Amino acid sequence: MIMYKTLGISDEVVKLVEEAEKDCREEFLKIDNNGYINSLKVLSSFHKNEITESHFNSTTGYGYNDLGRDGIEKVFSDVLGAESALVRSQLISGSHALNVCFFALLRPGDLLLSISGKPYDTLDEVIGIVDNPSSLKSFGVKYDQIDLVDDDFNYGAIEEYLKTHKVKVIEIQRSKGYSTRKSISIEKVEKVISLIKKIDSNIIVMVDNCYCEMVGTKEPTEVGADVMVGSLIKNLGGGIAPNGAYIVGRHDLIELCAERLTLPGEGAEVGPTLGINKQLLQGIFMAPSVVSSALKTAVLTSRVLEKLGYDVEPKYQDERVDIVQNIIFRDPEKLIRFTRGIQQGSPIDSNAVVEAWDMPGYTDKVIMASGSFTQGSSIELSCDGPVRPPYIAYMQGSLTYDYGKLGLMKAIELLLNK
Questions:
Q1: Tell me: the pLDDT tens digits for 197-208?
Q2: Is the pTM of the predicted complex or chain greater than 0.85?
Q3: 22 burial type by CB count under 10 A (0-12 exposed, 13-18 middle, 19+ buried)
Q4: CA 12 to CA 417: how far, in whole Å?
Q5: Among candidates 337, 330, 302, 308, which has minimal Cα distance to 392?
Q6: Which of 324, 292, 319 is nearest to 396 (CA)?
Q7: Beta carbons within 8 Å of 10's beta carbon, 6+ residues apart
Q8: Is residue 121's pLDDT more than 90?
């Protein structure tokens, strides 16, 4: 097709991708079915909470009596199976929301335990793994971790640890982050929460659910998690939310988080929406469809790169837990070329040549392609990774499958033809 030529995509790459696409049809049907179930959940919540045009109205200043903000938080609570929600543009990222949670729920002398290994790099200074005078460690909060074993929780070690230590909060990070492990399924989350609660029902289980929302039809708060956190420039923002994050869970815990975000005594009652309500409502409304597009793009990417001889995780027929697709290049130049190709296949700043740089919050240089309408959006087509062995590209997103497929073609073109 002549239009492929205008994008600089060769017949060879078109043929490769279209052949791989045929292999993915069964997986695409499964994804569409999950998306339909999640659409039912969202629409039912809009009806239950009687969302009207008045919910699009905005507040400024202190943000008292914001009808739209309250409606949004009811919708998020329903869709995610939680008692309460805090959905705010004042939460600038998923990492910020996790930080708010930690400081809201933990006190000096308390013990925080991660049972999914070391959390994402951006939390190193929050926890105190890397020294920072504002860390939890500097406030006397203790930290420990139990690593996964064969991509599953170490149930025996967790049980033994909880019998000999007084743990206040357990943190679970479902998505792999910049690690080589697999992401954690909802079935495994449910199993380990059941174990924890049998040993000590007072332990607060907090789940970092970034990249995982609506990939399946159940969320951690529907299987026993006390608190769950995620970003709105990932799955639940649907590519429409311009920023923000959410915290959902038990009502008493969400109140503590709200008072940490704002101030004691006011909590969730303040926080102006500044015209964002319509975008947040549209975002979660579109989220099932957009997540499905991101998943299809990931499945296709997995199949294409596997056909080219690269190790991929997950493989195209594997169960999906999040929207992230790993490609293990074992070569820094191939990682860089593929990432630059994703940038070239993006709608914004397609002419930019991305370089690895010292990104705030990370210990290694990171190369990142994100030619997105919202800066740093991971639900739009993006690709990033630390430039360190084994040189893994972490690709995620795409607002539509068609754009994801085209972006992948550009990346393959650059990978094959320097």
A1: 999 999 999 999
A2: yes
A3: exposed
A4: 11
A5: 330
A6: 324
A7: 4, 413, 417
A8: no
Q: How many CA atoms lie within 13 A of 390 on its CB side?
A: 11
Task: Measure the CA–CA gap between 292 and 312, rounded to whole angstroms.
Answer: 20
Checking if the pLDDT of 361 tops 80, the result is no
- Joined together, the tokens standing for residue 142 give 């203790």
pLDDT in tens, 71-115: 999 999 999 999 999 999 999 999 999 999 999 999 999 999 999
Contact 180, 392 (CB under 8 A): yes
* CA atoms of 127 and 248, how far apart (whole Å): 21
Give me 243's structure tokens: 């920023």
Q: How far is Cα 120 from Cα 176, in angstroms, rounded to an integer?
A: 8
Return left, alpha or beta for 330; rule: phi > 0 is left, psi -120 to 50 is alpha, else beta. left
Strand-strand pairing, 169-173 and 142-145: unpaired
- The residue ranking higher by pLDDT, 362 or 391, is 391
pLDDT in tens, 14-40: 999 999 999 999 999 999 999 999 999
- Mean pLDDT over the full length of the chain: 96
CA–CA separation, 169 and 1 (whole Å) = 56
Token reading at 292 = 């499905």
What pLDDT digit, counting tens, does each position of 302-312 carry? Answer: 999 999 999 99
Q: What is the Cα–Cα distance from 10 to 149, expressed in whole angstroms?
A: 43
Are β-strands 84-88 and 204-208 bridged in parallel, bridged antiparallel, or unpaired? unpaired
